[in-house]
Design the sequence.
């Protein structure tokens, strides 16, 4: 199989983890006889530094031409500390999501048995958890009109949904639920928000087309609580952009660490694969980051992007093996025992490849 | 001390738990020689049934005249299942918050040692946690303009903040932090939302007036994760209406159960005290609800509303004692051992009063 892959390392720990996601793809190509052609492009703070733009036209062009994109992370402390800056790294990520029509963000909560202990949640609560999040990614308050009054004392963002936006992701989520445990939980705030009432109405309609799937509607506040109280009760979770952002980060504690979770953004064409962790500037360049989420992003690309199930499984199994042998990065190492061999980013990356 | 207290039982389990919050206040009056005069009023589904309105004028009038309000819960499955209904219970709660100018919602995460085991989070992660949330309560996407297009295919809610709204609650939160561990974490989504950028800018300004308090700014997605990863790192958490709704429900797992958390809404005049749990229609009327959050709401009324610290402490200590003796309601009983004596709502209420 021949594929063109665009690698966008981005900011913070992005470059150091993406190195290993890319290396994993190269290794897979070698083992299975595929041809993966890589190109690299700038986005975020890294792009602003060079071109003044968070998403240069060139990057967008390359993205459109590629078969899949492997992304690292975005964001920089400079902008976080100064909310008045007009050009911001995250605009690059939001724009590429919109431009490529990546309306469905899939975030599987993959639980490695070996990491049950790494979570702050009790192992007996976690064991057996298997959740697949469908986060809507190109609508909501992320993309609604933003305003700032002239005196700068009032600011707003429009939380807005169109029925077709809810429909298309709901179909995807229901179809996935049919292949899984046939339960779907749609999360909204329909007791307060009109956009959530549209969301709920629409999901209720779509649900009728999937009578084999059991549907539940939950308010976001309750869902944030249930997710840690009893994660096993969830199968597919379908939710809006903002709520999905919050719930999936929270859910990373189920997997032991953010450093273990990958996501796939799909929609109209090219798929976009990235760790769910952020740029983590505080540990950037210190060889402390966990490269496994990037390697798992590569696995998602193989599976969801290219339909290469066996290749994806090899990566996941290898990570499982490495964890079984007691190797850990800092974020997933239990510091209170010395059962674990704690590795830096590069060592962990090399080990998985081996 | 003479005080007029308005009791609004509301919907679902509201009435059955509020009975015990009110009884606790009566008992305190008796012991300490205060005169608490009670009046009762309708709100929510209960009010719609009788008057057609979720917040009858009469209730609002009584509220304005009272010194404090003890509230139960709001909401009903009927409305949750039918998003198209125009008149909804929650409108009553939102309106009374707005009308009474209750802009600051304080949610202390009170951790009873005895309940460390009741949480899904590991006791060693929880031990020592002590968080006070300041949730903004009369702004944000809760109160911004709502629209629905004529074809009903597009719906929106305006997420909006004015600088003064952020300032007034920030001052309250900083003042509380000065009396506590002098750390304040402000939670927003300033990397995406303009209203959050206003929020962050404003908090940065106010922070300068409280140099003895250490300020941190955190994105909501990260905060939802950190809260369960390492709850001890938080002291005062300051956040917007929607984010506060989500984070505090999530934080209820720290306290072992939603059934243990109370909140105080304060602002321009009369204080409003309520459990953070909802109406829980599924268990309403079954004697399964936990009355402790309502009794703790009464304690907050005594402390924050009336400045009666000793009286409040007596209630909290009594609950502590009852838990130490092994009594539990269903939500906080560990079903896997028989160390606990599991009580119904009424039995638990009576026990605390005794
Ligand atoms: C960086 C940020 C804009 C982004 C988001 O909020 O979508 C990130 O948190 C994510 O979840 O991918
Ligand atoms: C019932 C609902 C409107 C309310 C809210 O979202 O504010 C509740 O969840 C709360 O937290 O008090």
Sequence:
């Amino acid at each position: 199989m021949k594929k063109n892959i665009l690698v966008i390392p981005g900011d913070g720990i992005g470059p150091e983890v993406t190195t290993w996601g890319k290396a994993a793809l190269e290794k897979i190509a070698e083992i299975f006889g595929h041809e993966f052609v890589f190109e690299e492009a700038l986005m975020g703070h890294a792009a602003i530094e060079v071109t003044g733009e968070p998403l240069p036209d060139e990057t967008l062009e390359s993205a459109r031409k590629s078969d899949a994109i492997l992304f690292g992370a975005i964001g920089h402390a400079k902008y976080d500390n100064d909310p008045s800056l007009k050009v911001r790294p995250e605009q690059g990520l939001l724009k590429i999501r919109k431009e490529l029509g990546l309306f469905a963000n899939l975030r599987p909560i993959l639980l490695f048995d070996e990491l049950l202990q790494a979570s702050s949640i009790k192992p007996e609560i976690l064991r057996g958890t298997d959740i697949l999040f469908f986060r809507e990614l190109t609508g909501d308050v992320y993309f609604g009109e933003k305003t700032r009054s002239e005196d700068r004392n009032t600011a707003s963002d429009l939380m807005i949904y169109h029925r077709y936006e809810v429909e298309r992701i709901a179909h995807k989520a229901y179809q996935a639920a049919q292949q899984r445990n046939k339960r779907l939980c749609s999360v909204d705030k329909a007791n307060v928000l009109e956009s959530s009432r549209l969301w709920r109405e629409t999901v209720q309609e779509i649900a009728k087309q999937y009578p084999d799937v059991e549907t539940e509607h939950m308010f976001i506040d309750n869902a944030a609580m249930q997710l840690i109280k009893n994660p096993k009760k969830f199968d597919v979770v379908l939710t809006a952009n903002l709520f999905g952002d919050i719930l999936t980060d929270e859910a990373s504690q189920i997997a032991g660490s953010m450093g273990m979770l990958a996501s796939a953004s799909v929609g109209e064409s090219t798929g976009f694969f990235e760790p769910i962790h952020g740029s983590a500037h505080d540990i950037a360049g210190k060889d402390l980051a966990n490269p496994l989420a990037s390697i798992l992003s590569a696995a998602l690309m193989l599976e969801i992007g290219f339909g290469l199930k066996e290749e994806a499984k090899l990566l996941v199994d290898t990570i499982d093996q490495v964890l079984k042998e007691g190797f850990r990065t800092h974020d997933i190492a239990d510091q209170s025992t010395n059962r674990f061999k704690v590795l830096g980013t590069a060592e962990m990356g090399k080990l998985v490849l081996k």
Observations:
- The first helix of chain A runs from residue 14 to 32.
- Chain A has two domains: 1-105+257-354, 120-254.
- Chain A has a mean pLDDT of 95.
- The radius of gyration of chain A is 20 Å.
